[in-house]
Amino acid sequence: MPSQFFGLNISYTGLTASNAGLNTVSNNIANAETEGYSRQSAVQEANLALRTFTTYGCAGAGVDTIAIERLHDDFYDGKFWDNNEKLGEENIKAYYMKSLENYFADDDKTSGFNTTFNLMFNALEELSKDSGNSATKSQFVNYAKSLCDYFNTLSNQLTELQKDINMEIKDTVSEINSIAEQIATLNKQINVIELTGSHANELRDKRALLIDNLSQYVSVEVKETPIIDTVNNYDTGANRYMVKIAGGQVLVDTNEYNTIECVQREVYETVNQSDAVGLYDLKWDNGANFNLYSTMTGGKLQGLIELRDGNNTEFFNGKVSKVDLAKNEVEVTVKYDYLKDLDKCTLSSTGGKISLGTEVFYYSSWQYKLDDDGNCTYTFALDKTYGECTLSNSRLDQEAKVGKLVDYQGIPYYQEQLNEFVRLFAKCFNKILTQPGAVDSNGDPAQILFVGNDALGNQYDFDDYYANGSKQCSSVDLDTTDDDPYYDSYYLLTAGNFAINNNISLDPTKLATRTGLSDGSSKADIVFELLELKNDAEKLVSDTGTVGFRGGSSSEFLQSLLSDVALNAQRANSGKSYYKTMSNTIDNQRLSVSGVDSDEEAISLVRYQNSYNLASKMIQTFTEIYDRLILQTGV
Amino acid sequence: MRITNRIIQNNSLTNINNNKILQDNLSTQIATEKKISRPSEDPIIALRSLRLRTSVNQTDQFRTKNAEDAESWLEVTEDAINTLTDIVTDVRKQYVKGTSDTLKASDRQIILENLQSLAAEVYNTGNVDFAGRSLFTGYRTDTTLTYQKNENQQFKIWEDGSIDTMDKVDYTHRDDTVEQNVYRESVSRFRLSYKNLDAAKGTVVKIEGMGDVTPTVISSSANPDPFQTAIDNPDDIIYVPETGELLFGKNIAESIETGKRSFTVTYEKNEWTKGDLRPQHYFKCEDVTNYDPIAGTGSIEYNFTSSPEAEICYNIGVNQTLRINTNASECFTHNITRDIDDIVRAIKEVDSIEIKLKELTDEFKELPENDPRRDALQTQIDAVNKSYTYMQDTLSTMFGKGITKADGYLAKNSLALTNCGTRSKRLELIQNRLDTQLSTLKELKSENEDVDMAETAVKLSSANYAYDAALMATGKIMKESLLNYL
Questions:
Q1: Do B303 and A518 touch (CB under 8 A)?
Q2: Which of A588, A596, A607 to mutate to test binding with chain B, by most B CBs within 10 Å of its CB?
Q3: The pLDDT value given to residue A177
Q4: Residues of chain B contacting residue A32, judged by C-beta atoms under 8 Å apart
Q5: Is A39 helix (H, G, I), strand (E, B) or coil?
Q6: CB-CB under 8 Å, A519 with B307
Q7: How far is CA A223 from the centre of its chain?
Q8: Does residue A7 contact residue A622 with C-beta atoms inside 8 Å?
């Protein structure tokens, strides 16, 4: 027989349960618009029945709220993160491709390559009609200067963009580091709470939100495993929470976290010839290398790295064919056509790293050689000052690599394209200009028009270039017997230092327009030949004999490049909108489980209010019953 | 699926945003009149647009700049040749007058003056320029056709000749005392293009198959005169620097004629008078004014044989050029004035002998009937009269030949003019074609990148309608919830 007051207690449990329910509803409504909040629900259970030792057996003992649970589906989190990572990558690519599109634009509003190039060739047309006129020459030279300015500006813009991207890599890395720290802290707090058996709902929401954030920067993999006390075979309630990023590299392991450091490259570590100075390499704080070029990196970080370092898979690689221990040199034989053509060379002129097999060396300079059979070698002079590896004969036949394969058309790719075009065009133009017998208005031998400025403001004059047939060149001037202090190879000409010969710029009459000293100033045979350079791809021949720039004539240069830019931008834009839609869909699926719905909460409100009201009605009823029993019964 | 308020909000927002993007696109298209504002929106349109823009630019250069310039050049050239034709026609008129039988001394004087003034004018028309560039001087547009003032410039000139460019001149051997001694003989002559040559430097004639022959230099004022010397020395060549003539002895002339030999004459000239044609436009020559014989430098060679045709061409289409210039050698030949020189000389000779004859006749008239000197004077008069008749006849023949030659020059002029006209005609056709091409290209460009306004406006208003509808629906659905009814 249960206590006379048993009913009152049952009513009381009803009252508290309704209260808990109401509080949960109130919490849900309050957090309806909170980012990352998962709706909660009070889990109620009937109390264990009391054995009453009566004929009816057990009597129900009321209700108990055993937990306030978070309604959340981890499966959708994983899907969201995977998608968010791709969205982050496409987003950043779309953003930067927009800048590139602007740089390469040429339309009614912006005068780009085509406008500048056409103006120059129109001036050349004028020159063909009046080749003896110094005003016409001066006009042409000025337009040629505009072309140089165009390439200088474009190259600078690309370098600046590369710097911006580099800075954003640093920001992204600090963002990742900060998230790692927060996650580790949360892990600790969650475990402290959950060791006591309760649910750390809000903290878990917060952590999931952090991973949401992290997933746009880099690919994320999360693993949560319960910590089992193996001795007593008992679930402690705590969890081991591992966050791996960029293809399995551990960022957070429960309370511990790693940070990534940005290390600036020194001048002697330059990867590509036209790279900005001080690009970052990434390292873990524990000393391990962060693999920058893994295709698993994912997210904004991958997008940034591909934009910054993308070389369209064309990087320097070959086989060590000779080791010279005395000179500390290695000879590398290359087989790809893009390495045999020095116009396409992207090797640094200020020294860089070269990996021979598994060991990494530093080189200070290199020499290029192409023999008549088409065998091409690069001889690297290694620098003992840097690095820890010592050259030995074991390096023979090892694979030599400078830089890494990055399968994207990033800044280095466009810089390479600009350099290649500038070198090819300048070379062919100068060659026609200085053909045998060419003389200027003053009867002096012709000079080249397009040159490169070196860092000291001197101009490369490429004078030995035609003499030695360009089959053997060096990244530095080794010819000490030469009176001329400058370099000879067109490799040294880049879009950034592309310029007009000072002599001609100061005195345009030095521009040659004809062959034949006394044949008369209006003879313009050279000018007519130069004009053909515009539309005739056959006139644009590289040292290795390939015709045209990417098979086209020089006026089609922008078409080739703009098609790259436009297609990449288009791909990024459509990728971005696709993943954006996907993101919405997945987010909606998540919300479908964990989102707060006001109608639902209104109904819960009514439900709990009713049960509260009923429970208090019960208490009132019991009060009346006790009143009857104690005060009015049998007294 | 459980739909929460947030899902509805998200979806509505996405949809409304999509509508907005569409509207933004369409309104940008209308504002810019272009189908795309960034290449990535449609790479194909963007690349085609680049290509078309380049083509339009290039065609425009051909049409509005090159073709127009060529047209002006041709017009100026035609005008100059027409002026030359007028002058040569005037010269011919004088020659016609000269053939008249009743030519009096005063008539000859008028003809002489007319011819001299025409000779001064004839090459001046060749100095016309187009925007400061000399028209008839081949590639050497910075050099005028003739000397603009008297100048000293030592030129060594190589001039080619053959039997076809040689002529025969009638020489009257004068003997003013014995009539029987007066006779007329024709002398083979090669008239060089210039007179007043540098006598000191001499001349060399390189005859095909005969080697170098060094002519004897005889001044025109020498006695016996050069013609007489040429007649007296049949194996020699006589060089007359003042008149710029080479007189061939009978035998040497014969061997050139029978052997059909060509020859090259090398001579030098230092004193140039205003109006002389500059030799570099016509001959292989060398300016040795500043020649340093020790160093072997300082001379300027004008190698005419390497570029006999200095063609100035303008690009007026892709791989299409038009020659625009006419070279001086096509119409301004030295012979026009050299003919006049000959005639002037002959007139002067006739004049002088006429005066002589008049003096003698006057003297004869003053003598009394029975003066013993009369017979001797009569013999003298007869002798001079014979020479006078010969010379007058020679002059008359010369005028006759002059007409034929002038006709030749006119024919040459009209050929040059026809060439010019043919080029103008061709240019006109090309200009028409370029016009068509240009408008086609512009049309293609517009079709490629410009929006169809009407179509876009319709699209925009339908997008606007969709946007309004989306707003209305969202507004309705978001306002209400169960809580409103509790």
A1: yes
A2: A588
A3: 93
A4: 5-6
A5: coil
A6: yes
A7: 26
A8: yes
Instruction: State the Cα torsion A79-A81-A87-A88 to the nearest 10°.
Output: -170
Residues 6+ apart with CB under 8 A from B327: B136, B137, B138, B281, B309, B310
Q: Is residue B392 less than 8 Å (CB to CB) from chain A?
A: no
B450 at interface of A, judged by CB pairs closer than 8 A? no
Structure tokens at A40: 């909660």
Q: What is the mean pLDDT of each run of 10 residues along chain A (635 residues)?
A: 78 91 91 88 88 81 88 88 91 91 82 87 88 86 91 91 92 93 92 85 90 91 87 83 87 90 88 88 87 86 91 89 87 88 85 87 85 83 82 86 89 92 89 86 85 80 60 60 57 87 87 82 85 86 83 85 89 91 89 87 90 91 88 76
Q: What distance in Å separates the CA atoms of residue A343 and residue A428, rounded to the nearest whole number? A: 12
**ipTM of the predicted structure?**
0.80
Number of other CB atoms surrounding residue A617 within 10 Å: 11
Is residue A369 within 8 A of residue A471, CB to CB? The reply is: yes
Distance, CA of B250 to CA of A477 (rounded, Å): 74
Q: State the alpha helices, DSSP H only, in A196-239.
A: 201-217
Query: Cβ contact (<8 Å) for B486 and A97?
Result: no
Q: Among A129, A593, A598, whose Cβ lies nearest the Cβ of B5? A: A598
The answer to whether the CB of A294 falls within 8 A of the CB of A244 is no
Rounded CA-CA distance A511/A439 in Å is 8
Question: To which residue do tokens 């002096």 refer?
Answer: A444
Residue of B6, B286, B306 to mutate for A, most A C-beta atoms under 10 A:
B6
Token pair listed for A255: 């309370």
A340-391 pLDDT, tens per residue?
888 888 888 888 888 888 888 888 888 888 877 888 888 888 888 887 778 8
> For every residue of chain B, which 3-state class applies, written as one string?
CCCCHHHHHHHHHHHHHHHHHHHHHHHHHHHHCECCCCHHHCHHHHHHHHHHHHHHHHHHHHHHHHHHHHHHHHHHHHHHHHHHHHHHHHHHHHHHHHCCCCCCHHHHHHHHHHHHHHHHHHCHHHHCEECCEECCCCCCCCCCCECCCCEEEEEEEEEEECCCCCEEEEEEECCCCCHHHCEEEEEEEEECCCCCCCCCCCEEEEECCCEEECCEECCCCCCCCHHHHHHHCCCCEEEECCCCEEEECHHHHHHHHHHCCCEEEEEEEEEECCCCECHHHCCEEEECCCCECCCCECCEEECHHHCCCCCCEEEEECCEEEECCCCHHHCCCCHHHHHHHHHHHHHHHHHHHHHHHHHHHHHHHHCCCCCCHHHHHHHHHHHHHHHHHHHHHHHHHHHHHHHHHHHHHHHHHHHHHHHHHHHHHHHHHHHHHHHHHHHHHHHHHHHHHECCHHHHHHHHHHHHHHHHHHHHHHHHHHHCCHHHHC
Which among B47, B310, B486 is the nearest to A562, CB-wise?
B47
Query: B412-435: per-residue pLDDT in tens?
Result: 889 989 988 999 999 999 999 999
- List pLDDT tens digits, range B72-88: 989 999 999 999 999 99
Instruction: Reply yes or no on whether the pLDDT at B175 is more than 60.
Output: yes
Cα-based angle A592, A598, A603 (whole degrees, multiple of 5) = 105
The whole-number pLDDT of residue B462 equals 92
Q: Cβ contact (<8 Å) for B6 and A591?
A: yes
Whether the CB-CB separation of A262 and A276 falls below 8 Å is answered with: no
What CA–CA distance (Å, rounded) separates B211 from B262?
Answer: 11
What DSSP element (H or E) covers A79?
A: helix A74-104
CB-closest option in A118, A581, A598 to B57? A118
B16 in contact with A at a CB cutoff of 8 Å?
no
Predicted local confidence at residue A471, as pLDDT:
61
